[in-house]
Structures are given as structure tokens and as C-alpha cells.
Specification:
By secondary structure, the protein is of the alpha+beta class. Among the domains are: 2-77, Arc Repressor Mutant, subunit A, CATH 1.10.10; 154-231, Ferrous iron transport protein A (FeoA) (SH3 type barrels), CATH 2.30.30. Helices cover 42% and strands 16% of the residues. The chain is built from nine helices and eight strands. The protein has helices spanning 2-9, 17-30, 37-44, 48-60, 75-97, 106-113, 119-128, 175-184, 217-222; strands spanning 64-67, 70-73, 154-155, 164-170, 191-197, 204-207, 212-215, 223-227. The strands form two sheets. Strands 3-8-4-5-6-7 form a six-stranded antiparallel beta sheet. A two-stranded antiparallel sheet has the order 1-2. The longest helix has 23 residues, at 75-97. The relative contact order is 0.10.
Length: 236
């Protein structure tokens, strides 16, 4: 029995880097929910027929299942996705902490490096980077056995006036948006208070430790926050 479990926990050597990339993206997009093939094609900037061909391969390996609501990862698929995401986020942390590369650049760099990094090198990067628990954008790094803590944050765009808390994650890969948010101090760990919201989906005004900032609703949707208990709640 133990030998069977150990074999099952080993990553599949038959998966190509592209297959792993698809699994990781399905996990990121869905975070436990179904993902539409057309949305996945837009996210990966490939054609829908190309996505369908890859989904057929993943399904044949027992890594996804199709439902009327979209694509879901199987238990094995989620395990492989989290292994890929762990390596990617360790790479991002290494590039930022050790090499000093800005958080707006590391996602694309990690994408290019992922296919050539083996498990031993990833472990070394993890140690040299100080055993990070989160990537530079605030996302938790899965454990080696494919576990990840539950997430209880909400989009900043849904917080009500008077809400206080801290930024947990920034969910955009756009370099210009990340550079702009960094210049405002809207980075993971920053404390804030939402002091005003313009009507008709207008911008939000936030009070940070040293200054106030104004941010549009679209960008606010990409910022995930953890609210203090006494100020929890979302806007009507």
C-alpha cells in the first residue's frame, strides 16, 4: 500500500512543460471552479482549437474533466498544477529576493525559465531565497506535496467605505499595472483604509501609512485584501 501511494504522489514524467503550464493556468483561473475553454484560450493567447487539442491530451491522462460549466481539474491534475505553481512562485521569489528584479518583470521571466528548472535546482533556489512562503505578488507558495492554505481575501473593489485591512495579493500580470501599483505603495502587506468611493463605479480613495492614493475601480478589482474583523463587509 505504501509503495502504491508513493508512486501516486510522484510527478508524472510523461507530462510536457506545455501540459504543466495549462494545468497551472487552469488552477489560477478557476481557483477551484470551472474554467471555459474560450477564456483559457484568451488568457494563453492561443486559438480555441489549440486549447481543445491540449484539453484532449490532459483528459486522456486523467488530469481534467469536462462539465457543462467548464473544465475542472481532477485530484491528480490539481496536484500536478500545484507542483508547477510552486516552482513558478519560488522562481519569482528567487528573482526578486536574490537577483533584485522588480515584481513587474518576474512573472514573464519565470515563465521562460520554468521548462529548464529541475527539482534539485528549484530546491536550491528555495533555500537561497530564504524559504519564501509567498511570491512577490502575495500568492502563497504550495507545499512540496501540493497543499495550499485556504484564501479568505476579497477584491478591494468590493470593500465598503471605512473598511480597514491589508493588501494580501495583487492579481495582475501586466507589467505597467504592477509598476504603477508599486509606485503608489499598493503592494502585499501594505495597510490601508478605504475613505471614499466615487459614485457610478468611480475611483476609490485609500489612506495608506504615509499618504492617500486614488485608484480606479478596474485596478481595485485586481487587488485582493484581508479586512480587519470590525470593518469587514462589502459594498452594497
Amino acid at each position: 500500500m505504501e509503495e502504491t501511494l508513493n508512486r501516486r504522489e510522484q510527478p508524472s514524467r510523461s507530462l510536457s512543460p506545455m501540459m504543466r503550464a495549462y494545468l497551472a493556468e487552469i488552477y489560477r483561473m478557476g481557483e477551484g471552479g470551472p474554467v471555459r475553454a474560450a477564456a483559457l484560450a484568451r488568457r494563453l493567447d492561443v486559438t480555441t482549437p489549440a486549447v481543445v487539442r491540449m484539453l484532449n491530451r490532459l483528459e486522456s491522462h486523467g488530469l481534467i474533466r469536462r462539465t457543462r460549466h467548464g473544465i475542472l481539474l481532477t485530484e491528480a491534475g490539481e496536484r500536478e498544477a500545484l507542483r508547477s505553481i510552486r516552482q513558478h512562485r519560488i522562481l519569482e521569489a528567487f528573482l526578486t529576493r536574490v537577483l533584485g528584479i522588480g515584481w513587474e518583470e518576474v512573472h514573464a521571466l519565470a515563465d521562460r525559465l520554468d521548462p529548464v528548472i529541475d527539482e534539485a535546482l528549484c530546491k536550491r533556489m528555495y533555500e537561497v531565497a530564504g524559504r519564501p512562503t509567498h511570491c512577490p505578488h502575495g500568492d502563497p507558495i504550495p507545499t512540496p506535496d501540493g497543499r495550499i492554505p485556504p484564501l479568505f481575501d476579497i477584491p478591494l473593489s468590493e470593500a465598503r467605505i471605512g473598511a480597514r485591512g491589508r493588501i494580501a495579493r495583487v492579481k495582475t500580470e501586466d507589467p505597467e499595472q504592477l509598476r504603477y501599483l508599486g509606485s503608489l505603495g499598493l503592494v502585499p502587506g501594505a495597510s490601508f483604509e478605504l475613505i471614499a468611493r466615487a459614485p457610478f463605479n468611480g475611483p476609490l480613495r485609500l489612506r495608506l501609512a504615509q499618504h492617500d492614493v486614488i485608484i480606479g475601480l478596474e485596478l481595485a478589482h485586481h487587488i485582493r485584501v484581508l479586512l480587519e474583523p470590525e470593518s469587514s463587509g462589502t459594498s452594497p
